[in-house]
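Thread: "does anyone have the structure for this chain?"

Original post by V.I.:
We have the sequence but no experimental structure in hand. Need at least a predicted one for the grant figures.
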Amino acid sequence: MEPDPRFAEFVAERGDALMRYGYALAGNRHDAADLVQEALIRLRGAWSRVRLKDNPEWYVRTSMARLHIATWRRRSREALTWELPEREHHDTLPTGDEQELWQALAGLPRRQRAVLVLRYYEQLTDAEIADVLGISRGTVRSQASRALDKLRSAVPHPTLYAQSAHKEKP
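Reply from O.Q.:
Generated one for you, tokens below.
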């Protein structure tokens, strides 16, 4: 396969945005980088077809969401631990109330987090989210509802909800 300079241009132009999307899905830089790398490998294999017919960024973002969910499905159980890491972890997170919200989002199950990221970060409809994740629209709605309930109970700050409700009004 000959190198295509348009693929390199795409990666250079959209790499940072894809990393931000991966971070929103995975909750940390390392898993985000893995998602981006694997999705770009898949895009490279399909580049000749995707660049002509489809939107390459949509292809990569869909691949990332599916990879994220597939990782969750493969694991029968996650091993959670309360032990602190040996060294401090330096993911860049907002401060104050926003940090609490990010931490609560990172604590959600993968499918619930993916649904919220696709709905509020990607601004996809329930039908589009169902298509990306390979689940029904009813499952999308129930997962979003459960995730939002968990976030509300984890971060009981009325000012955050007042701000988001104010933004959603037409």
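V.I.: this helps a lot. The two ends are 50 Å apart (CA to CA).
O.Q.: and Residues 164-170 have pLDDT under 50 and may be disordered.
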